[in-house]
Specification:
The complex is a heterodimer of chains A (377) and B (108).
Chain A (H helix, E strand, L loop, with lengths): L9 H14 L8 H14 L7 E4 L6 H13 L5 H7 L1 H8 L1 H10 L3 H8 L3 H18 L4 H7 L9 H4 L7 H12 L8 H18 L2 E7 L2 E6 L2 E2 L15 E2 L5 E5 L2 E3 L1 H8 L5 H5 L4 H10 L9 E9 L8 E7 L7 E7 L6 E6 L4 H7 L7 E5 L1
Parallel strand pairs in A: 1-3
Antiparallel strand pairs in A: 2-3, 4-5, 5-6, 6-7, 8-9, 9-10, 10-11
Helix pairs in contact in A: 1-7, 1-11, 2-12, 4-5, 5-12, 6-11, 7-11, 8-9, 11-12
Chain B lengths: L4 E5 L2 E6 L13 E3 L7 E3 L3 E4 L9 E7 L4 E2 L15 E7 L1 E4 L2 E4 L3
Antiparallel strand pairs in B: 1-2, 2-8, 3-4, 4-7, 5-6, 6-8, 9-10
Classes of the chains: A alpha+beta (377), B mainly beta (108).
């Protein structure tokens, strides 16, 4: 029965809460036996032969896991349960029939939206860590992984090739399907809808047992435990105490408010070990912002010849703008920065400029002169 | 004289112009720009045209024909309608910052 306040069934809310519980846990005990059995049962419900071998990998950066994910992702492993669902009769029925209505209901803003807004998914975390990890390996020419990455077709590897290996990749559909089966509109749920719920429930139980990712390739099932994830109030990967994404005993990734940062930098930022001049030398604008945000602001006074050369009390969105300048070693001219705030996020930024007037600095950063900003977001 | 209208969406500026340059090819993408933290600037409706990097100076990277268009970004405007653009033609400009060694794109 649809709850008036929620806009969907309370039982669906209970399912969403259950999903949020597994993504937000501080720690877990991996129960390999239960996880394996749950994932194997997904083969049974589609009448598929179970894979002969199971291999556990500590994180998705394991070479065999990556290669299998790549191969399976390209071939869409014709005999995996995931593919059977997508390509087979159940999938077609689902696409053609009742789920389409469920999807519309979900898009309209009820159960699915609540799931999307209320959680961070392991697939997302895996995808993000994967993205950060591959970028790093591409830069470090000396490492074996980089050579592997650069020396093969894997240069085309993208986050999209990886998302589907996450057990909760399709959980937004699970939520809307569940809600639809509880409160169908025009079409009554079919047998296939029930099978899909059974399949998704098994995946959720496997996640609760500690499994995060799975790939089947050449009769072998490769499994990776779920990552432990820390997020901020805006659901961005974030932790000032430890890595924000971590596979127990495997790779760890450090983030500050969604920005992936190498551990040595993360350490300096969270422990406020940067000098103000070092912060202004950070190339990445977002990293500079994060580092400044966490810096003890009294350090600004330590900048040589620090001064404010122009100031605007309201930029049109209730924020101040300033041009600050200071000198650094080995650079003759003083460095100047436009100190401004984002009108929507209210975050504080410093953007390098050669202008002395705030409005000129702002316009010139876009190559503008006399144009007028009508609206900013 | 009436000033040229501009709309800013994070590190992107959309400058209103009267007509599209000739010879542009419409892009199949709805993504204006991919951010470095997987936070993309996208549109829900409208047509995007991208140009070869640097072919129209440092700042211009493409054009947008807006028709019932909302600008979307997970942090600046996550929902349709929050950053609605007036219908029209826009030049897309990428913010740059000055450094003693030259201009560099603002990385978001």
């Amino acid at each position: 029965m649809i709850d008036k306040k929620l806009g969907y069934d309370k039982k669906t809310q209970a399912l969403i809460d259950r999903m949020c519980h597994y993504v937000e846990r501080e720690d877990y005990v991996l129960n390999k036996k239960v996880a394996e059995e749950k994932i194997l049962q997904t083969y049974d419900i589609f009448g598929l032969v179970r894979p002969k071998k199971i291999v556990w990998c500590k994180d998705p950066f394991n070479k065999r896991f990556m290669e299998s994910a790549w191969s399976a992702g390209s071939a869409r492993s014709a005999r995996s349960a995931w593919s059977a669902w997508s390509a087979g009769s159940a999938g077609s029925a689902r696409s053609a029939g009742s789920a389409r209505s469920a999807r519309s209901a979900w898009s309209a803003g009820s159960a699915g939206s609540a799931w999307s807004a209320g959680s961070a998914r392991s697939a997302r975390s895996a995808g993000s860590a994967w993205s950060a990890g591959s970028a790093r390996s591409a830069r470090s020419a000396g490492s074996a992984r980089s050579a592997w990455s650069a020396g093969s077709a894997r240069s085309a590897w993208s986050v999209d090739n990886f998302y589907w290996a996450g057990l909760d990749y399709d959980f937004d559909y699970f939520v809307m399907e569940y809600e639809y089966c509880l409160n169908p509109s025009n079409n009554k749920p079919t047998k296939n809808d029930r099978i899909y719920l059974q399949y998704s429930t098994l995946l959720l139980e496997a996640l609760e047992a500690g499994l995060g990712l799975r790939v089947e390739w050449e009769d072998t099932l490769y499994l990776v435990p779920i990552a432990l994830v820390k997020i901020d109030e805006l659901n961005r990967f974030h932790s000032t105490k430890e890595s924000a994404i971590k596979w127990k005993g495997g790779k760890e990734f450090y983030y500050l408010h969604g920005g992936n940062i190498e551990k040595k930098w993360w350490n300096k930022i969270v422990n406020d070990k940067f000098k103000a001049s070092e912060i202004f030398a950070i190339d990445n604008h977002e990293h500079r912002r994060i580092a400044y945000e966490m810096m003890d602001k009294t350090k600004m006074k330590s900048l040589k010849d620090y001064k404010v050369i122009d100031e605007v009390s309201d930029d049109g969105y209730g924020n101040k703008m300033k041009i600050i300048s200071f000198t650094v070693k080995n650079i003759e001219e003083p460095l100047k920065y436009l100190n401004c705030f984002c009108p929507t996020t209210k975050r504080e930024y410093f953007i390098g400029t050669d202008k002395d007037i705030c409005w000129e600095a702002k316009k010139s950063s876009f190559g503008l002169r006399d144009e007028e900003f009508i609206k900013e977001w | 004289m009436k000033k040229i209208q501009c709309f800013r969406h994070g590190e992107i500026c959309l400058k209103k112009i009267s007509k599209l340059p000739k010879g542009l090819k419409v892009s199949g993408s709805k993504c204006i720009m991919q951010g470095s933290h997987s936070n993309s600037h996208t549109i829900d409706n409208g047509k995007l045209y991208f140009i070869k990097s640097g072919s129209e100076g440092t700042y211009v990277f493409g054009y947008l024909v807006a028709q019932n268009t909302s600008l979307l970004h997970p942090e600046h405007s996550p929902k349709v309608g929050q950053a609605k653009l007036p219908n029209g033609i826009y030049q897309l400009l990428k913010q740059q910052e000055y450094t003693p060694s030259g201009l560099i794109p603002v990385q978001d």
